């Protein structure tokens, strides 16, 4: 493992309209970590992600990414937002969405021929060859999701952040997606927000449970045996305590 | 209509219509894809306060409307960026306040006032040459900014958060474009009037959006449609002695409803679009 942590949060708090969402969050993410961010709805998972990305500012505390403020290194993130169907009726082609990943790559509001080649290569990798000129409106939920993953990968990121990427994807697609992520994880740090730890349990290295507070479980806690158990049992890994104590118990959930 | 062009006012009207089309096509597309129709309505109505201010202080009315439209636009945008959920209420309030301010200031100004009807319904046949130059300048600025920043504008409109991560100055460009919207409104009010400015900004892009695959094509098709609506509306107004703004909008409305008829025909004669999954390639090889 590299010496310098990739992401470092120290006593970070955030509230929305006076309601505390996250309280005194501290944890670090190492190079080529594969972190699963889990927790109940409204627990602050997406907020945590947006703080790391620099899209939100913490009320207090310190966030460092590669030793700098998130805003300064925002070009090193590849981000797949939670809701990829929000602007479905927008007149835009698959190619133009993926090319957003190359935006400002040359410092200007232009794309080069090399950017197009890059975009086509990424689409091919995700099994979307020949989709370049299709309107985003014509795609299925799973195809749409893969276009957004292609957009994130086209940015050539060091950190890949995916907010519930499997929401509109069937089981076969999920397995494909996670095996792709596993391959990318050889060189990239990955953060995935998800409900279903089951599917990704054989890929993740660390887990952050988010519910106002964040409990970070490092790789020592997630032994292969534990993950295998979690994979076979119909019980979610999030279930701290009974019946399967897969993760160390902690207070306040 | 060719013989009508021997009159300077007809030539001015035609130029005003053409440049209004250029501006409307670009700005209107931006307004429609960003769902800013209500905000645009708010700016257009609040700008009436500028008429009142201009008459009260005895300055040219164009400066009054530009000033008030810009201030209203910036306030509305700031509120929209800050709280997306309740900005419509704020816009509604500014909308009403601007109009009330205009009416009261005109009450307080002694003497005869410029025709309110011409502000409400436009007077393309009375567009002075100076206004044509303003519109040429605005059209040129809008075109240059849009062409140069096309990718940024596309990204901001489609997914502002992602654009921000890529280092696009989202707020700066957004405010710039809203300022262009405000300026466009002031000049297009000259052509079709306050009441109808929304229609000319939204109908062509709305029709265009259904048949195109990109924002760029949406803008181009909108410009073409605007030209058709403006020129044929103007021709009708000239031939049948009608109010020009109302005639232009009636032509646009006819196009609007005709597009629904076209949609119906397309859906009858074309097989449903393919949505099935093509053979999926393995994600990793």
- Which chain pair has the greatest contact? A-B, 44 and 36 residues
Number of strands of chain B: 0
The dominant shape of chain A is globular
Low-confidence stretches of chain B: 275-285
What is the topological layout?
The complex is a heterodimer of chains A (253) and B (285).
Chain A: E1 7-16, E2 19-29, E3 34-38, H1 45-53, E4 60-65, E5 77-80, H2 94-99, H3 113-125, H4 141-154, E6 159-163, H5 171-184, E7 189-193, H6 197-200, E8 206-211, E9 213-217, H7 224-232
Parallel strand pairs in A: 3-7, 3-8, 5-6, 6-7
Antiparallel strand pairs in A: 1-2, 1-4, 8-9
Chain B: H1 8-33, H2 37-46, H3 48-57, H4 61-82, H5 87-108, H6 116-121, H7 129-148, H8 150-158, H9 160-165, H10 170-192, H11 194-211, H12 215-240, H13 244-269
Helix pairs in contact in B: 1-7, 1-10, 1-11, 1-12, 2-4, 2-5, 2-11, 3-4, 3-5, 4-5, 4-10, 7-10, 10-11, 11-12, 11-13, 12-13
Task: Give a structural overview.
The complex is a heterodimer of chains A (253) and B (285). Chain A is an alpha/beta fold and 253 residues long. Chain A is built from 7 helices and 9 strands. The longest helix of chain A is centred in the middle third of the chain and has 14 residues, at 141-154. The two termini of chain A are 31 Å apart. Residues 223-246 of chain A have low confidence and may be disordered. Mean pLDDT of chain B is 86; it is low at 275-285. Chain B has a single domain (8-108, 116-264), classed as ABC transporter involved in vitamin B12 uptake, BtuC (Orthogonal Bundle). Chain B is an all-alpha fold and 285 residues long. Chain B is globular.
In a nutshell, what does this entry contain?
The complex is a heterodimer of chains A (253) and B (285). By secondary structure, chain A is α/β, with parallel strands linked by helices.
